Amino acid sequence: MSKIISNDRQKRQSNIEMLRIVSSLMVVSLHILHPDIIGGMHLSEQSNSVPAMAFTRFLFSFCIVAVDVFVLISGYFMIEKSSPKIGKVINLLLICSVYSAFTHVLTTLGNGKPIVPAHLAFSFVPRSYYIWLYCTLYILSPYINRVVSGLSRRQYTRLIIVIFILFCLWPTIIDVIRCSWNTKLKDVFTVSRDGNGNGFTLVNFVFLYLLGGYLKKYPITFRHKGTKYLELMLSFCCAAATAALCVIFPKINGTKAILGYETFFVVLQAVTFFDFFARINIKNSALINTVAKAALGVYLLHKGIILFLVHYINVEKLFGSGLFGTLKAWLLLLVAGFTLSVILDTLVHLVMTPISKWWSKTAVFRFNPAGNLETKEKSTSVTS
């Protein structure tokens, strides 16, 4: 997803592009299992199959980090940039608008209902919390980068520690308390009065952006190359810990508070998972790089596609038939949802590419909402 905004590199790093693909698959898996979408996790619980329940709980907990990983990637590549273009924000919102309308049409037809013109017109409003928060972060990024560029490594480390305590560790402690005593707490949160938004906030996006930037500027070094596999193991352990906590603690207001994007195990898993891919060597692959370009399309299109597919796949029967049926239903929806999303996104971009090339030459597209901070800094130093 973040490549559309942040990836201006002539040569892509296939290891990070592979991470984009894996994260896209995780997003699709997450929504296949999510109780408010396909509900695979709850359907497997109804089967009373312990292996099926264990698998879906672990998979859901593992895939919850996908959004955090995407923001980490953005911080990793954008932390040293200072010239955002308003045209890229408009492009992103337009793509989201078109895909929102497409999803509306697909789900409406899938439910056997007629297309209502008024509803269709309203469906063109871009509906994606991620896109809106991401565009906001993109516009603010040069100012964030300017602050970071003036920090020493020690100061940047302290900043990360302070933000970690305020916006990751403290929310986790409060969520555990809420889950343990099944009580609603107010006026003890660092993001808002009533809660931490389960990480669906600009605060969490900025935190992850700064983390990604820190890993770029000051990469963690290990003596042994094989240590990166310990990071992968730690990532899986974090997912297992999150899954276990979800079993131990009851629900809070219909959601699993401990699965918030801002909580400790989710953030730690995202960082270790990202850093593992940042360390592996993958030969530059045109196939990987091409498929990764559709990451945004997969994110925006897959939900409507899998909701349409469930009208032709008996997911209740499959998820309810034990581990084998659960694996079959998950893989069918995952492969079909991802593949169709990539194909549709590729077709859309074949049409949009000539328009984008023309649009990128206009003054509106090139307008920099932050101004040229680097130029101002240089001119100030020369004057002084």
- Gap from first CA to last CA: 42 Å
Q: What percent of residues adopt helix (DSSP H or I)?
A: over 70%
**Major beta sheet, specifics?**
none
Low-confidence stretches: 2-10, 375-384
Order of helices and strands: HHHHHHHHHHHHHHHHHH
Estimated share of beta-strand residues:
under 5%
Give the number of helices. Answer: 18
Task: Give a description of the structure.
The protein is mostly helical and 384 residues long. It is 71% helix and 0% strand. The protein contains 18 helices and no strands. The longest helix has 37 residues, at 323-359. The protein starts with a helix and ends with a helix. Residues 2-10 and 375-384 have low confidence and may be disordered.
Overview features:
384 residues; mainly alpha; 0% strand; disordered N terminus; disordered C terminus
Provide a brief overview of the structure.
The protein is mostly helical. The protein has helices at residues 3-6, 14-33, 40-46, 50-63, 66-78, 86-110, 117-122, 129-149, 153-181, 202-217, 228-248, 264-279, 286-292, 295-309, 315-319, 323-359, 363-366, 373-383. The two termini are 42 Å apart.
